[in-house]
Design brief:
This protein is mainly α. The chain is built from 7 helices and no strands.
């Protein structure tokens, strides 16, 4: 029913474009300036508009590409309304009232066409499909993210054990060296404490470097896991 008026009006406009061409002159010229593809000849432009209305109205009535045909009809209805029902320019009160009624009628039909243009006929919309795909991807990535997080925790524990072992070894080495220095006599006994101190400092420096590098790697792994979980 929505498409019937467009089929009848489109066919009539195709056969007699001169009936509406004078009123459409201003609108056609403005549209032609914005869109070069629109014919500058008013009667030709009106005839093309009528052909689109007749074709799209027929397709909508038969259920062929309903969203596309409704959108095409909505596009033709705008210039038709602006050209044929400029009620604000009418001087006679009765004529202004009639033109206002036709203007509001076309505005109502435009709303119906826009609703038809976005109607999915029971099928899920693109926005729903996108959200569903996003949730499915998150569900698939969930186990991988948990595995990465678990690996990061295990890496942190292993790094802590390595650091503690390194520091313990450094302390034992320092103690053993100091014991040997105390038991020694002569010139060598003066050098051993300094050697022990140097070995201890080197071991501790290495342990600190290992600790810093490991903590950086663990933090990077956890940040990556959070990013994967967020997506």
């Amino acid at each position: 029913m929505l498409s019937s008026i467009f089929v009848v009006q489109g066919l009539e406009t195709m056969q007699h474009p001169e009936m509406v061409a004078p009123r459409a002159e201003t609108v056609v010229q403005r549209i032609a300036e914005l869109f070069p593809a629109v014919p500058r000849d008013t009667e030709q432009a009106v005839r093309v508009n009528g052909a689109v209305q007749a074709a799209a109205g027929t397709m909508l009535g038969l259920g062929w590409f309903p969203r596309l045909s409704a959108l095409a009809l909505a596009g033709t209805l705008v210039p038709t309304t602006l050209a044929g029902h400029r009620y604000w320019e009418a001087e006679d009160p009765q004529e202004r009232k009639q033109q206002r009624i036709h203007f509001l009628k076309n505005l109502s039909m435009l709303g119906g066409l826009l609703i038809a243009a976005v109607d999915t006929d029971g099928s899920p919309s693109l926005a729903w499909r996108r959200r569903r795909a996003s949730r499915a991807a998150s569900a698939r990535l969930g186990p991988a993210v948990n595995a990465i997080t678990s690996m990061s925790d295990e890496l942190g524990q292993a790094a802590t054990a390595i650091i503690e072992g390194t520091r313990l070894a450094a302390d034992r080495l320092s103690s053993a060296t100091q014991t040997a220095a105390e038991s020694a006599r002569g010139a060598a006994s003066d050098q051993l404490p300094r050697l022990a101190q140097a070995v201890t400092e080197s071991a501790r420096t290495a342990a600190d470097q290992v600790s810093q590098a490991t903590q950086t790697a663990v933090a990077a792994g956890r940040e990556r896991a959070r990013q994967l979980a967020a997506t």
